[in-house]
């Protein structure tokens, strides 16, 4: 049931992005943007839409779901660049700079970030102006020098500095992947102009569990199953949750975080079952 | 008088950006972001603040001025990258990827784009939520695959295709530099929630005049005066306004556009004198 919903929500986000790009002239930029947003799991779109359904505003959340998928896609395209992680493979396909070129990949990422803010501010979405401004503000904070990009900068700085401690890795990951995951979970209450506290607690725990699961996959997964290069962190001697906690310790910590995430949604009863399933899925996935 | 105001408005934008970056940890990212936003003319900040003063909302426009300067700085940092224009010099100083490295320059641009949306949505700015959402939406449209990034993509496509016609160059430049210039000019009426028609007409003409002046500088300026490489377009055999209209023809067209820009502000009388001065400055500048 959860995986069906995930596929539906991914499609909703995908279609809104395709619609937004329809007026763009037929230059490689447009094809490369569409290529970059295709094939994702759609987890973030699901988190936006499901948190919105929890507040009975699911029908107003499509644009926010598209926004987070566009923003996530941009971050992957830039992460994969030669000057960054220099990856050839993403979601089992050539990365954008391999299929096109570096200039196109830089522009695709830049345009996808702009598209994310365009989507989140879309007036046709039926969301109040105040709520759209708040969604855009918090998305910018989660994406920029106080969130995702900061996490990436800390990650790069760690490559040449001393190995990170558990606290430092937790801070780094809270920026790099956690901030946007939490944003997705808080989109529902923000659209409904309600208190974000329970969904923020859920999102914070989920984001960290997700990253621990990523580190476990990097250690134990195969490139065919994961769809991107694996074992790179260990090869680079980088500290990860697995290197610091051990494989079993990391798995236990991920399970604890999923419990924390589910507990945060206690007051919603069975209406939050899909989000609880999502939390369990995040640490059980094989890619 | 106009140049004094320009310097003051540039400082206003600069200080708001510095303030926003104060909580960012001391990683190279932060220093490089501050480096990238320093030393600009501040023309776009002035256009935001002066258009706002025309509508008596100058005191609410600081964050929008900071936003456009952050966005402009991001576009320059990414434009200068080796995979794009591969420039070593910007505003007379080493470009970000030369002073730091490519990864830092990519992240600086990404974070500055996010910062632009954070600034424009800042709730402390005293701008109504509806107006902030509209400012962010239109900024995203002007910056992304229907505006600036599209212009850059068309520019790259032109390098390998047939020489562009005057119409095609006009379309390209309307995206590449014009859309954000027009956004800056429309910020005032948008903050005041007023009709943008006169400021849009002014901005459209100003943006095109600015780009023609840029092409003239690329042809006639010296690297010392301009602060960046010159003569690159001619060396690359790229069609420009100068190659298509001739030097005198390009100068005449720029003067006509400044007249069009000033005429659009006729209903404001002498209150629009600073904006008219700015239009004349744009085609008289030597950098």
Automatic annotation (TrEMBL), chains A, B:
CDD domains: Trans_IPPS_HT. Its cofactor is Mg(2+). It comes from the Bacteria. It is an enzyme of class 2 (transferase). GO terms for biological process: carotenoid biosynthetic process; chlorophyll biosynthetic process; photosynthesis. It catalyses: isopentenyl diphosphate + (2E,6E)-farnesyl diphosphate = (2E,6E,10E)-geranylgeranyl diphosphate + diphosphate. SUPFAM superfamilies: Terpenoid synthases. Keywords: Carotenoid biosynthesis, Chlorophyll biosynthesis, Isoprene biosynthesis, Magnesium, Metal-binding, Photosynthesis, Transferase. It holds the Pfam family polyprenyl_synt. Pathway: Isoprenoid biosynthesis; geranylgeranyl diphosphate biosynthesis; geranylgeranyl diphosphate from farnesyl diphosphate and isopentenyl diphosphate: step 1/1. Belongs to the FPP/GGPP synthase family. Catalyzes the condensation of farnesyl diphosphate (FPP) and isopentenyl diphosphate (IPP) to yield geranylgeranyl diphosphate (GGPP) needed for biosynthesis of carotenoids and diterpenes. This is Geranylgeranyl diphosphate synthase. It comes from Loktanella salsilacus.
